[in-house]
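In this supplementary section we document a worked example of the pipeline. Step one takes a protein sequence of length 415 as its only input; no multiple sequence alignment statistics are reported here. Step two produces a three-dimensional model, which step three serialises into structure tokens for compact storage. The input and output of this example are shown verbatim.
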Amino acid sequence: MELKRVVVTGIGALTPIGNTAGEFWKNLVAGTPGAAPITLFDTEKFKTRFACEVKNFVATDFIDRKEARKMDRFSHFGLVVADEAIADAQLEGNVDPDRAGVIWGSGIGGLDTFLQESKNYAAGDGTPRFNPFFIPKMIADITGGHISMKYNFRGPNFTTVSACASATNALIDAYTYIRLGKADVIVAGGSEAAVTEAGIGGFNAMHALSTRNDDPATASRPFDKDRDGFVMGEGGAAIVLEEYEHAVKRGATIYAEFAGGGLSADAHHLTAPHPEGLGAKNVMRYALDDAGMSPDELDYVNVHGTSTPLGDIAETKAIKEVFGDHAYNLNISSTKSMTGHLLGAAGAVEAIASILAVRDGIVPPTINHFTDDPELDSKLNFTFGEAQKREVRAALSNTFGFGGHNASVIFKKAQ
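The serialised model returned by step three reads:
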């Protein structure tokens, strides 16, 4: 059978540096840091007291108060970004609901709901008194359910859970269903809300987070010699993926074409990357093979680049091996230097950064670079400091998750 082409016709974002896709992109290009002291809970006794929180967001500005009470914060984020993307794509009334789906990603789901319900139970006398919405607020799949119910989308509907690769997995699955002809349109993306006592405390216990409490705005330092861990982020992003002929027929605006995707496993360690970037090398090659593209057809790599000592080195090694001499012609940047790490939602946010880099011919920067790391190749263009204008024919976005889960996607100019 002939595989269908898949394009992007709508985007929505709610991030630590912008509450819409447009605001996010403007601040990303400007190099705006999103980290600040945590406001969501008392951090006095925590090793890390800052994060990249979503700012000036009130769920009931967008969602009916009664309905909002039935949702965790990660679902609030997901519903709001889906609303933006669906409106951007002008989908309502222009799609067969049986041929429209939702595939979502979340690495953790309703962590705050689980924490609060557990606290309430522990404070009681042992009598099991739980909120009747406890389970439906917490489960990771529920956001896709909320989106489908609101828009009556009755096509494929499920959630991918692969830690920090979750949203990218969701995008690849949506792409696959559409190109196999099993759907015309799928809203795909991810959301996460792990800036909680359990989220910060848990990652602190693993020594995964930066503890640069004296200077939060510069704490996320991908590829810097003095990087000391990632900065937790929260938020979400949604992308409307659509079969090309379907999009053209209804006169949709096309941002870019989804060219290919790859999936791999490190099969190495619970949390650490393969030291030689084996899984990262494989997943980028798989994405290129899937797209039918050669490495020299790409101009930008939006790296996983979390600002961890081991991860940044392993990913850079992988890029050099996959791209060979062309690696020195690439722009490489880590937008996590601004947004922090949105865990299961990171892949969707960074996919939008890649899509808009292709559309606008602008590569967003890697901020917070102060000292070169002698273990990294200084001849590579990490886009330090300021955005760079260039033609971006195609962009690749990497996401790697605990457990060794790797996912890469490629977007190119739509012909």
